Amino acid sequence: MALKKALPEHRLIWIAGLRKSVFKGPLAVLARGVIDEITDLANVGVQWRELLRPPPVGRFDIVIATEPKLRNAVLLRRVKHRVFISPAANFRLSDRKPARGISYPESVYEQMRCLAALAAGRELKIDAKIEVGEENDRRAGELLPDGQEYIGLAPGSAGATKRWPLRCYIELAKHQIRCGLVPVFFLGPEELTMYGEIAPAVPTARFPEQEGPRGGPLFSIALAKRLTLGVANDAGGGHLLAAGGRPLITLFGHTSEHKFKPPYGHRIAVNARDYGGIEMERIPVARVNEEIAKVVYTNHQ
User: Fold this and answer.
1) Using CA atoms, how far apart are residues 74 and 87, in angstroms rounded to an integer?
2) Do 246 and 222 share a structural domain?
């Protein structure tokens, strides 16, 4: 949105070279009014053999190659452009570069912010708050009414190696009930099989996304705004909880706590590496309970 506001006379076109774009799927609602055109599975900037065929048709004022791979930069630089921006090879192929002494950030969010600023030609003022709409706020308030403290739990992940064992989430939920918090589980479409294991083990847990018609990502964010805090794996569910602006404890195994750090609110990382390896099951439930207690205590000060 900040880039769109900075360059209002430009059309913003998003091209996914290899996969389907989430902005045409689950996150389509977030792209409305911001991205003017989305093309996925474009097969551009993917393989060296693209050099054997003519460059893609079309001309752009500014081309931003977001991937840091040299191949990606070389192939996309063939697209007709006025300005080309790429972090590959320390911006060697880029027409615009960060100021001397400024390193390219590790966080994906900060990377995109850096590239957008280069495209706009100035630093951008970014408001990370996401407007969810009155109807989503109303529904969330009905399902998670005032008067209780809620802890959000997002046990899913597309990759099995990034998941803390479900039994650990269940044990965590039971402990938090004893501490006076109401566990609220966030289960995406791929995680609905978890419901059959969680519900009997934690009968007082809430599953608001499964009550009534599924509301999509903005509804999930509206629910997250009503939490005291959340606990999640390093996955999409955690980013939705983070977007609610409440404190979030994220559990990491082999992934980096810095790469996908979201720009919302207070973040706490718990790493399996602190316990001798990258396997998620190494993270003790007791450690996560300790971090939760610190957040709750701080909120009550």
Assistant:
1) 12
2) yes
Whether residues 293 and 160 share a domain: the answer is yes
185 by Cβ neighbours in 10 Å (0-12 / 13-18 / 19+) ranks as buried
Residues 150 and 267 reside in one and the same domain: yes
Start-to-end CA distance of the chain, whole Å, equals 36
Q: Does 253 map to a domain? A: yes
Higher pLDDT, 273 or 260: 273
Does some domain include residue 243?
yes
Assess if residue 270 is contained within a domain. yes
Q: What's the pTM?
A: 0.83
Q: Tell me, what's the pLDDT at 143?
A: 96
List residues bridging with 243 in a β-sheet: none
Which one of 94, 120, 146 terminates a domain? 120
**Segment (H or E) for 231:** strand 229-233
Q: Could you give the number of structural domains in the chain?
A: 2
Q: What's the confidence (pLDDT) of residue 108? A: 85
Q: What is the dihedral of CA 18, 24, 30, 34, to 10 degrees?
A: 80
Instruction: Based on the fold, state whether residues 93 and 138 are members of the same structural domain.
Output: no
Q: What is the pLDDT of residues 102-138, one digit of tens each?
A: 889 888 888 999 999 999 999 888 877 888 899 999 9
**Higher per-residue pLDDT: 250 or 15:** 250
CA gap 236, 250 in Å, rounded: 11
Domain residues for the domain of 224 are 134-299
Confidence (pLDDT) at 260: 66
Token pair 């500014």 is at which residue?
62
Domain boundary among 120, 151, 178: 120
Instruction: Report in angstroms the alpha-carbon separations of 9 from 5, 38, 64, 224.
Output: 9, 18, 17, 35
CA 234, CA 26: separation in Å to the nearest integer? 18
pLDDT at 18 over 90: no
Give me the mean pLDDT over the 197-207 stretch. Answer: 96
